[in-house]
Amino acid sequence: MDILIDTHIFIWASQNDSQLSQTAKEELQNPLNEIYLSAASIWEMSIKVGIGKLVLLEPLARYLENAILDGYKILPVNENHALFVANLPYPSSSHKDPFDRMLIAQAIKENFSFISADKAFDFYGVKRIW
């Protein structure tokens, strides 16, 4: 199965955080799954590290190196993803975050399952794993 992971899932998995659900852990470790991290998530984390909103135990580049060594793939943002964001409804005050909206668009356009603790993604019909 192809799985896109939410930004917080990447951080939790990288830090062995207890907030990560058992189901999410199993899917991340399943050798039959292809795990993808969006370039949008890397951009989001870079911004948050730069402004001090995200403090990591190691440099972000090290987290990425380790993830790639563990078999994660980086999903680039392309024009189809970017254009699809315009088609996404705004169900409420949630998901006005441009990074979340890009992840939704990517999961839909690529037909990927999505690991996230955020129930708001369910509105979009993405197969959310938690």
Main β sheet profile: 5 strands, parallel
Q: Helical amount among residues, as a percent range?
A: 40-55%
Radius of gyration: 14 Å
- CATH fold assignment: Rossmann fold
Average pLDDT reading: 94
CATH architecture: 3-Layer(aba) Sandwich
Number of strands: 5
Shape: globular
Oligomeric state of the chains present here: single chain
- Give the helix tally: 6
- Which band does the percent of strand residues land in? 5-15%
Superfamily (CATH H level) name: 5'-nuclease
Features of the shown structure:
Rossmann fold, single chain, 130 residues, globular, alpha/beta
Describe how the helices and strands are arranged:
Layout: E1 2-5, H1 7-14, H2 22-29, E2 34-38, H3 39-50, H4 60-69, E3 73-75, H5 79-84, H6 98-110, E4 113-115, E5 128-129
Parallel strand pairs: 1-2, 1-4, 2-3, 4-5
